[in-house]
Amino acid sequence: MRTEQIADILDDMGSLLEIKGENPFKCRAYHNAADSLRGVVGDISALVADGSLTELPGIGASTFAKIAQLATSGHCTEFEALRREVPPGLLDLLRIPGMGAKRIKLLRESLGISGVADLKKAAEKGAIAGIKGFGAKTQAKILEGLEFLDKAGTRMLQSTALRLAEPILAAASEHPDVLRASICGSLRRRAETIGDLDILVSTDHPRRVLDDLADRSEVVSILAHGDTKLSVRLSEGAQCDIRAVTDEQFPFALSYFTGSKAHNIAMRKRAIALGLKLSEYGLVADDGTPTPCRDEAEIYKALGLEFVPPEMREDSGEFALAEAGKMPELIELKDLRGTFHCHTDYSDGANTLEQMAQAAMDRGWEYLGIADHSRSAAYAGGLSVEKLHKQWDEIDKLNASFGSKFRLFKGIECDILADGSMDYPDEILRRFDYVVASIHSSFGQDRAAQTARLIRAAENPYVTMLGHPTGRLLLARPGYDVDLEAVIHACARTGTMIEINASPYRLDLDTDGTRFARHCDVMISINPDAHSIAGLDDVYYGVGVARRAGLEPKDVLNVSGSKDILNLIKRKPPTL
Ligand code: DGT
Ligand code: CA
Ligand code: CA
Ligand code: ZN
Asked: Which of 194, 219, 368, 567 has the highest CB neighbour count under 10 A?
């Protein structure tokens, strides 16, 4: 079993115990162990074998025994017992925004609710409003939450989609009969969430290739198996469509199955206007003469267009740019020379300052911005002023040891309090190299209050950038109600930057927000919100959002090198 799956099971155990009404400290211990485990790099079975896992914080002898059992056998006796005792369907209720274990316990005890279907029925009947501690408002919120989950439906995060698609793509690419292979669909466009996976191969032996792919161990079940198309179910319920075409058809099929549908329709219309017919098989003139194209760029060229990168194929303005020869030179992952908003074990991160710095250097970066939680974020080990001093001292020592080749920046993810003030006084804030200001509480404020709160944060002279500005969690929680355009205008006016929080769970700013920020000349920082070394690589997803929004390197803060960056983050430009 993989580390991530084991961590998920530990989390489930903690939640099931909470729902059962166990001692909260005992439950918390499971979640802490899960967090610890997520920071682990390398092969879990090796760490189990030599016992070194017990050196991690939060992993004692009994937790270790469970992890060892899961890692070696894929089973855990206690987890199975717990699932028999508490209906596991109750875990699904945790995904409803605003629903915690305490509430689920109450619902189970008073109405015998055991899953989403029960809950929906009870809420629609109005039975929940009558339970002590719930009321009509909560009942309405629950119904809203259920509707949100329904819409999220069976979509998955981009990170899940990539993890599931990679082994299949690798198998396809390495198949001796395969000439070309690619991911297509929403995953190639790097959309926020993914419905199903699409993979395309070119080959002269389609049946043989599809048969071999259908035999892969990743395939849980086969939904359809024809001569040129295979649809399978992978783990975690994900569906994958695999299509096989000839190598001459490949560019046309790649273009078609990458989509989006709206982009395809616009492409086909352009072809028609030129007396051509564009399909997934080719580009053909009215008299039947084909226009062969070796790659997608040649298709665009044949239609009088500059190449449109997959991320921008949403029919949201790319055709005007491609026609005028004004496609942006989109930012790439390799343009980043460092990043901001990274947590360490000073608050709720899994790794030390030194480990995070080393990992940043391993990625070829010149600097790393540390930003642990501020003091009000008690749930996440927010830093007291005393602990801040300790961290600053350690950063100074590390920086001295790095010399000129690398630098850690002293930052903070400072809570924006309910009234828009900051979690530390100005005399503390001014001592940071930079400040990320984020909302982690009072999500329920109305639109006017929430907007004013964020604008006040932007107006603080020490706030360098806003963190995850809408607070959404993809497939889990909508953002708070806020007039984002007004907030972006305030950032433009005050010289405040905004992050693309690149965590695949967030992507916040989203594509539209990022596009609007650029339109207003607000500088964007692509931040991983890393809670471990592995989390640093999430900048990849942030670059995806930036590319979808048409951002070039000049629009992004952290393409700047170590020479200029301190000036950019340390003080805001004077406002007009
Ligand atoms: P998803 O799976 O919901 O995240 O989104 P996509 O874009 O991957 O959609 P999917 O898997 O249904 O289809 C893959 C691509 O195939 C899609 O992006 C465009 C193309 N396509 C599918 N259906 C149609 C259609 O009815 N018309 C056109 N023009 N293209 C289509
Ligand atoms: Ca798809
Ligand atoms: Ca599909
Ligand atoms: Zn945060």
From this structure: 368
